[in-house]
């Protein structure tokens, strides 16, 4: 039986549970359900030097709400003929190439995910040094991978253009993300505990708007706060909750939040929430507001859409792909329009919410891999 080997090196080393890590965990689980024991043996793996270590399963992150479990020690493997390595993690933070090249020499195949090109297109949005690190990793990946995956057609077009300029033709396929990030509903006891650190659920008379994402420049938290400050100045009383860890280049935003007169009254910030708590919030909010300057996909938009939570989203092509017809779209960066929509917001029930599960994504991945095998 062929082995499908998901790299989880950065995931394990960082301990993070944000966008890319959630994608890797969800797709790995979907592949184990849909492809394991039939077409492939699906295993999480990590690299160290030129060696690979495999695990029977990936221990859940504490934020998944599945309890605390230690990662098993695993065992050394030598990927080779018939094996497929998947570099979908943020492996640009490490050096996977000695281990990858050793596996390729033994006959393994390599595919990779390019989540976006933003560190190259807008390096000012990220930490210093990421542009060079990310660019070098992308070139190495493109040289070795038999095919690359991207989450949207927007990223596909940008990537193909970049590779063409560099004379690096490559097969690039769209493998869009799923939106079922959590199926574990919180218990009544857990919901009761949320009162200690989360605002009360939305009601018609007391709306609650949710913003999900790491606090970083491109997510435009400042724009959203500007809109709510304007509404509060008008005497309106919507509540606003930012959910996300503190990232980088947001010192002024943090100072503004910490000194805001409505903090913990109409304005709230929560971090490191469990997936069940986040699911509960999405189901009990008036709407998700998601207005980044740019994205590779925009997971919160699809995740909220699949819970039929209303969405107010920036009108950029990537989010049109993620949410389809469900969100209310606003002109990117337009404060007056955002203020107007929030101030007059009413839930729309006529749109059809789009659904795509991680099991769907895993099956599509399996089809891509099978087609490549047949073409050889």
Residue share in helix:
25-40%
Q: Quick one: biggest sheet?
A: 8 strands, mixed
CA-based gyration radius: 21 Å
Shape: globular
The total of beta strands comes to 14
Description:
With 376 residues, this protein is α/β, with parallel strands linked by helices. It contains 14 helices and 14 strands. The strands form 2 sheets. It has an 8-stranded mixed sheet with strand order 4-3-2-1-5-6-7-8. Strand 13, helix 12 and strand 14 form a beta-alpha-beta unit. The model has no long low-confidence stretch (mean pLDDT 94).
Topology (SSEs and partners):
Layout (H helix, E strand, L loop, with lengths): L1 E6 L1 H6 L4 H16 L5 E9 L2 E4 L20 E3 L6 E4 L9 H9 L3 E5 L4 H4 L8 H15 L2 E4 L2 H13 L6 E3 L13 H6 L14 E5 L8 H13 L5 E5 L7 H8 L8 E4 L4 H9 L3 E4 L8 H8 L4 E4 L2 H7 L4 E3 L4 H9 L14 H18 L1
Parallel strand pairs: 1-2, 1-5, 5-6, 6-7, 7-8, 9-10, 9-12, 10-11, 12-13, 13-14
Antiparallel strand pairs: 2-3, 3-4
Helix pairs in contact: 2-14, 8-13
């Amino acid at each position: 039986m062929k082995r499908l080997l998901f790299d989880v090196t950065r995931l394990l080393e960082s301990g993070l549970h944000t966008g890319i890590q959630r994608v890797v965990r969800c797709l790995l689980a979907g592949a184990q359900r849909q492809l394991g024991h039939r077409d492939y043996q699906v295993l999480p793996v990590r690299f160290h030097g030129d060696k690979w270590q495999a695990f029977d399963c990936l221990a859940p992150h504490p934020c998944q709400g599945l309890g605390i479990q230690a990662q098993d020690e695993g065992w050394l493997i030598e990927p080779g003929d018939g094996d497929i390595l998947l570099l979908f993690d943020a492996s640009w933070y490490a050096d996977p190439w000695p281990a990858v090249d050793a596996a390729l020499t033994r006959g393994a195949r390599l595919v990779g995910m390019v989540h976006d090109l933003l560190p190259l297109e807008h390096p000012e949005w990220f930490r210093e040094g990421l542009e060079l690190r990310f660019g070098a990793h992308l070139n190495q990946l493109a040289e070795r991978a038999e095919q690359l995956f991207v989450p949207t057609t927007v990223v596909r077009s940008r990537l193909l253009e970049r590779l063409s300029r560099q004379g690096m033709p490559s097969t690039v396929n769209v493998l869009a993300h799923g939106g079922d990030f959590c199926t574990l509903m919180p218990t009544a006891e857990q919901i009761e505990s949320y009162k200690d650190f989360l605002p009360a659920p939305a009601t018609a008379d007391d709306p609650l708007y949710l913003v999900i994402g790491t606090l970083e420049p491109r997510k435009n938290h400042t724009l959203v706060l500007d809109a709510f400050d304007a509404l509060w100045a008008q005497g309106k009383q919507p509540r606003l909750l930012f959910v996300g860890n503190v990232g980088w280049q947001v010192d002024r935003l943090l100072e503004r939040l910490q000194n805001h007169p409505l903090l913990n009254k109409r304005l709230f910030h929560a971090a490191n929430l469990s997936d069940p708590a986040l699911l509960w919030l999405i189901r009990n909010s008036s709407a998700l507001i998601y207005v980044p300057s740019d994205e590779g996909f925009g997971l919160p938009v699809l995740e909220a859409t699949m819970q039929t939570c209303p969405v107010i989203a920036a009108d950029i092509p990537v989010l049109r792909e993620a949410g389809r017809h469900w969100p209310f779209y606003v002109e990117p960066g337009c404060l007056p329009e955002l203020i107007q929509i929030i101030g007059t917001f009413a839930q729309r029930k006529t749109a059809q919410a789009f659904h795509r599960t991680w099991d769907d994504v895993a099956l599509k991945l399996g089809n891509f891999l099978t087609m490549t095998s047949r073409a050889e």
